[in-house]
């Protein structure tokens, strides 16, 4: 494998990984999840070093695919304010990276796949609808838009808070934390939707990504999926509390191309092994231990099988 740091655009730094050998290869564009995480999947302060996208890139390049991953605005080697970027800005960056990959001399432009993780699955949906890639992959996401996913997360959090044992649960039920918190969320969302600014402040100090929320709220993923003609692959883990996997049952009735999905036992949002119970209140508590574990073997096997079946010719496999 040959790995190079490249400039996709004067303002966008990325990493291109190319399999050894001559000729062109199929390629995968990796689209990151939400928050200030860089091309490798790591946060700016070094607190959460997942290296998820770096590991996925190396795995896919090992299968014979060129891979491209890049820094989001305000992360890694890229300037800008990540919180001021809306969905439209993130989509523009993804489209720029897609065009770069399609035009690269080591890439077969007829075999470029978009692969999104978490929020990146929404960007992958946008590219699948508008740029006609060879394939589309949803890892820990898909079908729901961001607002629907956040709704699921809040409802699960309320359920766990109200079910807590002892005094904590009793206080939460007496104070009706679910009703109180939901009212606060609705009020905040409405404030962001009424604003025309990229960011707003609440309680004078706390910055919120208003443009990001507004544009996600307006984007209809299901409507977009009805225009997708390429093969679609989706992968969830049954220990992921940030998703409702039953929505993947809708895929076949939405997309016009072939689709398949898999729900992996004991896999969490970051595609690693998790044996602990599924709990949204325990995500941060379990995070450090989970980061020490490998990517889920069965999840990688499903990814490999789909990529090879759809995009590797007999000749390329022999090489």
UniProtKB/TrEMBL annotation:
This is Serine aminopeptidase S33 domain-containing protein. One of its GO terms (molecular function) is carboxylic ester hydrolase activity. Gene3D superfamilies: alpha/beta hydrolase. Residues 51-271 form the Serine aminopeptidase S33 domain. InterPro entries: AB_hydrolase_Est10 (IPR053145), AB_hydrolase_fold (IPR029058), Hydrolase_4 (IPR022742). Pfam families: Hydrolase_4. PANTHER family: ESTERASE ESTD.
């Amino acid at each position: 494998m040959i790995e190079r740091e490249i400039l996709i655009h004067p303002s966008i730094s990325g990493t291109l990984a190319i399999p050894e050998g001559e000729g062109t290869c199929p390629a995968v564009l990796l689209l990151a999840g939400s928050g200030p995480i860089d091309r490798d999947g790591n946060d700016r302060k070094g607190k959460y070093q997942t290296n998820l996208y770096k590991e996925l890139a190396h795995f896919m390049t090992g299968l014979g695919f060129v891979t491209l991953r890049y820094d989001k605005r305000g992360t890694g080697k890229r300037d800008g304010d990540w919180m001021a970027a809306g969905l439209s800005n993130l989509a523009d960056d993804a489209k720029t990276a897609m065009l770069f990959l399609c035009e690269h001399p080591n890439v077969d432009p007829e075999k470029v796949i978009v692969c999104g993780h978490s929020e990146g699955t929404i960007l992958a949906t946008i590219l699948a609808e508008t740029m006609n890639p060879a394939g589309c992959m949803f890892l820990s996401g898909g079908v729901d838009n961001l607002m629907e996913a956040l709704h699921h997360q809040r409802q699960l959090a309320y359920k766990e808070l109200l079910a807590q044992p002892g005094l904590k649960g009793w206080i939460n039920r007496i104070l009706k934390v679910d009703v109180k918190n939901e009212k606060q969320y609705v009020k905040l969302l409405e404030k962001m939707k009424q604003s025309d600014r990229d960011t707003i402040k609440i309680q004078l100090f706390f910055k919120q990504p208003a443009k990001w929320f507004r544009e996600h709220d307006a984007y209809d993923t299901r409507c977009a999926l009805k225009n997708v003609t390429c093969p679609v692959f989706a992968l969830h883990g049954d220990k992921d509390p940030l998703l409702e996997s039953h929505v993947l049952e809708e895929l076949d009735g939405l997309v016009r191309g072939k689709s398949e999905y898999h729900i992996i036992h004991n896999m969490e949002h970051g595609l690693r092994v998790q044996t602990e119970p599924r709990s949204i209140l325990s995500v941060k508590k379990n995070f450090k231990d989970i980061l020490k574990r490998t990517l889920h073997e069965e999840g990688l096997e499903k990814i490999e099988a789909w990529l090879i079946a759809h995009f590797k010719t007999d000749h390329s496999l022999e090489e």
